[in-house]
Amino acid sequence: METSMTERRTLTGFASEEADGTFTIHIVDDSSEVFEISASRENVELMISTLQAVLAGHSGEANHARG
Asked: Is residue 2 part of a domain?
């Protein structure tokens, strides 16, 4: 099996909305490409918790396996 590296991109925009308990997240990169993903409330709470840990100077890797 061949493994390829994903090109790293820069975040330039972000939006989200919620309907019927499902969150739709739009992420815009530096090429103006929009990525749309659906996430449960639990996924969104995990993302928030992980980002708060990183902002506080801790590793966010502990939450990675739980996602």
From this structure: no
